[in-house]
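Can you give me the bound-state structure? Components:
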Amino acid sequence: MAAITTTPGHHEEVDPNVSYLKSSKGLMSWLVTLDHKRIGVMYLISVSVAFALGGIFALLVRLELFTHGRTIMDADTYNRMFSLHGVVMVFLFIIPSIPAAMGNIILPIQLGAKDVAFPRLNLLSLYVYIFGACFGVYSMINGGVDTGWTFYTPYSSSDPAHGGVGSPSAVLPMTLAAFIMGFSSILTGVNFIATIHKMRAPGMSWRRITLFTWSLYATSIIQILATPVLAITLLLLTMERFLGLGIFDPRLGGDPVLFQHFFWFYSHPAVYIMIVPAMGVVSELISTFARREVVGYMAIAMSSLGLALLGFLVWGHHLFVAGMSEYATMVFSALTFLVAIPSGVKVFNWVATLYKGSISLQSPMLWALSFLFLFTIGGLTGLFLGMLAVDVHLHDTYFVVAHFHYVMVGGTVMGFVGGLHYWWPKFTGKLYDESWARVGWFFVFIGFNVTFLAQFVLGSRGMPRRYYDYLPQFEQLHQVSTIGSWILGVGFTILGIMFIRSLLGGKPSPRNPWGSAALEWMTPTPPPLYNFLPGKEPVLTRGQYDYHLATDDELYDGYDDPMFPGRDQEPRNKAKAAEGKAH
Amino acid sequence: MSTTMATELFFAPPAPPPPPPASWQLPPAMSDTAPPVDGVYNFIFWFSVVFTVVITVLMLYFVVKYKRKPGVRPEPTGHFNRLEIFWTVTPSIFIGVLFHVGYSSYIKNATAAEGATEIRVRAKKWSWEFEYPSGDRVPSELVLEQGRAYKMILSSDDVLHSFFIPEFRLKRDAVPGQYSFIQFTPTVTGPAQVFCAEFCGTSHSGMLASVKVVTPAEYKEFEKTLGKCVGTPEECTPTKYGETLFVKNACATCHGTGGNGMLGGSKSPGPKLAGIYNTMQPMATGPEVKADENYIRESILRPNAKIVAGYTTVQMPAFVMKDDQLDAVIAYLKTLK
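Here's the bound-state model for the whole set.
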């Protein structure tokens, strides 16, 4: 084991030989747990609830836009709906989704560690997140916010109750919610960096940590460096709204564009907090289901760090029409294009990995391939927006909405849901129904494209975003988009039901249901309390993607036909019997 | 050009037929700034299509060709340094080209022509007001002369707004406390649309204005009508003229249609106006005030002077009008029941 050892503070008897789900019992054993896996599961439940809530807001927004004029709600309600959709999806779902939920569970196991470096800090980060979420819920109960998730000043900071011209909605508790949740994000980042540096198992060189770990490493750097800027910005906004301190409101001597610089100095890097972990998940999925190491391991690892660095240099591209000098726009446009290089390198390497692989199209792989296709579109439409001349036309239209949904949903959510399928047996010890998983995937994939392809065209034709009502000429495409959102909603509902059914009555999973060579599948499924059985702590003798060095026992645990894992999920003894017949 | 033509121009415009869309994706191109943007757009569009197709086809081909087969083992991954360098350097060249193309068109569009006509654009929640060089202020409708170079000077009375004309492919934020500029020369006659593209509150989506690009001859006629009521005598009775001004100044976005105090089925942001004339109105502070002509006039010119009960602050911007326009609006408000 690594030099640091932690002793989780369990007060009752725990058995390190049984699964972490059964090692101790009772509600309190969860609420005060220091086990990274249980904390991760609680995060997973929280972000799933947030995703469902944000999804309902999205469906209501789309429903309102089904016809021009009033459909189901008035303008103020609509403005709150789209703002809450954004706030909930960004701050409560997508930022913590992959790092805090999946990273928490998988990262230490992939490092061969028994926990994260600071288990108490890890638990604190969960409760800080929940404390922040409470402020968000308080704001929603008090009518929510209508500022958009971007809180642009002076609309957000100028309180009509004090003679201002801005939003009358519950802005203060919502900015406080985002402010508080930022600390949770920072704590997770600190914890991961310390864990990756100090907790690696013997033989786990930097060349052998997984690409998922590399992506979380890059993400953690951004979380630590960027989030404090958001905290300061939101604090200034709060002081201006609450105390009348003149920072952003020109009436008080402030500069409204300054807010946008501050805000995007966090929020553009935050885009990479959202997408880079998903890229890490996709690297894992493609490697496992093509059964070979991802081509260009170091290129992919370094491109994650490259994205983290470049992410800090491009915030100005959100302000091309907001009042920057032509020279500043030139610099930001050039820097923005540089982001395309590491993104492109990743896509090329992933596709190259498929070449001469042994590809299985099980449900997690469907999500990974969807990611490749949708992220390519998301990335390329980003080039439209990086090109200054075109951005002036497309800025703040539905084109932008479609573009970032292709990156955030087509990218991050595909990675999140793919990872959820892939690691579901590891988390729960249960298998899910593969047929329903495919049906759910199909609905989501089709629904997503119908919803957002229509929005690209709407945007190019000049439909501005955040519009409660629109000109009749846009109605047809809005209807296509709304119908797409229903298909999307059906898809996610199917997946939700499928996972709940698996939880209630799913077949037990074998140790390594996908035949992966990565470390988390070498330990029992679900893992024991300290991730590895006592006396069986890992010492790495091969890389985690070295399929040609992995033994059949490591890879083909629990299947009839070693080359068709997942087809027949019968226990291993039957596989042994079949082996004689095959050869 | 007869006066009746000009009349129609202002109130019931002859509606020069809208030019055809530039493509199935882009609206009509109606100014000198539009074709360069369209060129760049189409270039990057086809670049992206080719790229997406190549990636997707390769991906699907590999998935089919290297589908898992019994007994067939995957080839272990080697090192491909040359390949890595190739697909790092090639995109770098591409993006260099893309940046150059995007920037050069942008900078051309950002430069004002010599002697451009200046029009002041004031954005306020939730309407646009255009001030012509003559000093006349016209809400919600912008008439431009084909072939004349314009420079728009934008400002905002309250929060951020963004002046967006898709047909000109131009957009610029109107920021309170500073001026911003856009410049263009309309090249094609026809109707175009002003949108507000930066979220600004309740009626953000109602913050529209229409643009009409007309021939130089038609523009001369239009200039004569600036600041006056133009139309048939019936259309220019004070009440009718007042109603037109009420609509064009977008009073309804805050006070409801006909000042009925309703918006989208619920209470509008501004107080009800119908039926208040000559009644006693309770104030937020101080004694009741009679809603007579002077009260209405003051409330239009200085909305903050007297605040009606139920409102702590006034969101309404001041509306600068000529006397006959004020008279007309007051006459119209008197008729509302």
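A couple of observations. Chain A touches chain B through 102 residues (CB under 8 Å). Residues 35-582 of chain A form a domain with the Cytochrome C Oxidase; Chain A fold (CATH 1.20.210.10).
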